[in-house]
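Protein record
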Amino acid sequence: MDLQDFLIRARVFKLYRQALRVAGRAPPPARGELRQMIRQEMENNRNCNDKQRIRYLISEGLEKLKRLDEMLDMQACAHITFCSGNGNGCKFCQASCGFKDSFQDHSRRGSSIYGWLELEAGVRD
């Protein structure tokens, strides 16, 4: 294995780890399916030896990961709007989505206070 192969291999593993981390932020019912899809994508292309194709797959994977991350952030912002903020948890989805904590815990899951305020402003208009 030469240096180029080693670097590409490292990028593939990095993408896989990032994808699993992002999938861990998904609501519990979807986590398993997301992890399974990520693993299946990796397995489908496991024996690919074409460096150009591997680079393409990495860039495509990064784009998909970015979209998934943004979607999960939007979902978290939507859940925050229903959160009471008093430590009692999310009134909207307390039993189903995993966002059971206070407002501070919601914001730690990757959504910003600015996104929450913008969503609040849109809801109130």
